[in-house]
Amino acid sequence: MGRAVGIDLGTVNSCVAVLDEGKPRVLQDKKGGKFIPSVFAIDNADNFIVGSAAEEQSHMNRENTIFAVKRLIGLKFESDEVQGSIKKLPYPVVEAPNGDAWVRVQDKNMSPIEVSSFILRHIRSIAEEALGEEVDKAVITCPAHFNDAQRQATRDAGRIAGLEVLGIINEQTAAALAYGMDRIMEEGNDSLVENKDKIIAVFDLGGGTFDISILRLHEGQFYVMSTNGDTYLGGEDFDLAIVNTILWMAKHHLGSDLTKDTRALQRVKKAAKEAKHTLSEVKKMTIELPFIAGGMRNLNLPTTRKDLETMVTPLLKRLDKPCFDALEDAEITQKDVTDVILVGGMTRMPAVKYRSRDIFKCIPHDGVDPDAAVALGAAVYSGIVLGDIDGLTFQDVIPLSLGLEIQGGQVYRILRRNAAIPTEVTKVFTTSAPNQNQVSVHILQGEDKFAPNNTSLGRFELEGIKTAPRGEPEFAITFAVDPGGIVHVAAQDLDTGEKQKVDISPSAGLTEEEVQHLIKTRKAEEEQAKRLANRQSQSEAQQKSDEEKQSEALKNLLFLTQFNLDTQGTSYIGQRRKELEEAISNARKALESGQPQSISETLKLLEDQAAKLEAYIEEDN
Description:
Actin, Chain A, domain 4, Substrate Binding Domain Of DNAk, Chain A, domain 1, six-stranded mixed sheet, 621 residues, 4 domains, single chain
C-alpha cells in the first residue's frame, strides 16, 4: 500500500507534504526546492515538459507553455472568469465541443483537467522520489470559492494522475488545520481545548486568487463560519501593476514601447517579480534593465518600498470588501477575531501584512510558513481521513447556494451559501403539467434568483412517473454535499417507493468515460516508462559491468607489463621503449580519470606495446 500526501495545487506554484509520525513536513525535489511551478509545456519535438523545466523554457516557447490553468479548470469558455483570463494569457484558449474552456498547445486541444493531471503526476513523482516509495493517495486543495464543477474537475485531474483522491478541501481550511497542528506540536494536545473558543481569519493571497475564511475553533474542532474572496486578485495582478509602471517609465524615459518586443517584455516581467520580492525584504533598490530598448539603451529605476506600495494601492484596497463581507456573513465584528493566519506568498509583502492587521485589528500569527501552510494542512487532513490523527477535526461550508431551476426560469434554493457541510437535504417535488411522465431536473449553484445567471452543475432526467393530473405525483430529491463540497444527488418516487439511480450529466469538465480513457492512457504510459527505465537500467548495469572489466584488465596488464619491463626488459631501448613507457603513462592517467572511453583506448594501445615487449623477451631468451 502506498503513502498518502497533501497537495496544494497552486495557480503559480504547487507544494506537497506528508505526515511523518504525526507531524507534517514539506517534501523537496532533488535540488532541495519546496515549490513546484504549476507549468506544463510541449516543445517542438512533442515532448511533454512539466514543472521547473517547463518554466525555464517558457521564454522561448510562450504560446505552448501553459501556466495558471487553475483559472480555467471546470469553467465555460463564455464565463466572465475565462474571458477575463484570456486577456492576460499568452497562449490560446479555445472553446471545447461542450462549451468548456480548453487550451491549445502545439496544435493539440487539451482540457485544463488533463493539463492539471500532468502537473499532479509530476508532483506525485517528486513525492515518490523524496520518500523512496509509492504514493497513491492524496488530499488536494482548492480555493474556497470553487464551485462543484471546479471541485469535480480537480478530483478528476487527481484520478487521471494515478491518485486515489481522499478529499478536496478548501485551501483556507487546510491552512487552519496546519495552524492547529502547529499549536499542538508547540503546546501539546490540550492547547486547543483549554482555550475553548477562538475566531480565526484565514487570509489567503496567493498567485492567482484572494480568499478569506472565518473559522471558529472549539475544543479541537474547526467550524467554518463564512468564506469570501476575489477570483481576479492575486500575485500575478500585483506583478502586472509593477510591469505596467516599468513599461510606462520605459516609454517616458527612453521613448520605447516595450510591449511590442516579446523578449524585452519577458525581461520586464521577470524584473517586476524580482522587485516585488526584494522590496518585501529591503526598503529600496534599483530595477536594472540593461540594453533593453532595441539592445541599445539601459533602464535603471531607483525604487523604494513606498513606490511599490503606491503602484499596487488599488489592489490593496480590493482586499477590504471580501473581508468585511465574510465578517458580516459570519455575523461577527472585527473585535471578535482572535487570530489571523496569513497564507500565500503575497502575504510576505509588508503592505499586505499591514492591511490584514488593519482590517482585523489583530497581529497576524506567524508560526506557519505562509507558502507551505496549505500543503501542510492537506497532509494533516490525510491523517485525519486515514485515522492517524486524533483530536483535530473540521466542519466546512458550501461557498455558493445550491438550488434547482423551477417553472418560470427561477431558482428554488435547497442550501444557502455558508451552510455547514457535510450535509444532506431532501425536498419533495411534483409535476408542473398534467400527464407528465418525465421531469428534467437542472441543478444550479449561485446567488441570483434567475437560473441563467447561476452556474449550471448538471442535469438529470426522472423517468417513469405515473400518468396523473398536475401536482399529484410526488418524488423526493435528496442533495448531499460531502466534506469536499462536492454534490451528490439521489431520487425516489414516493408513489412506488422506488429509488432511482441518478446519472448527472456535468455541465463542465470531462465525462466519466473521458476520465477513464485518460486514466488508462496515463497508466499505460507509466508502465511503458517503467519498462523503458528497467531496460535502460539493465543496459547501464551491463555497460558498467563491461567498463569495470576493462578497468580491471587494464590494471592487470599495466602491472604485468611494468613488471616485465623492470625485470626482463633492461635491454629494451630506443624508440620502442619510449613508445612503451608512453603507453604505460597514458594507462595510469586513464585509470586515474576513470573515463571509460579513455580506459578502452589505452587498453588497446598498451596491449599492442606489451605484445611487442613479450615478443622481444622471447627472442632474447
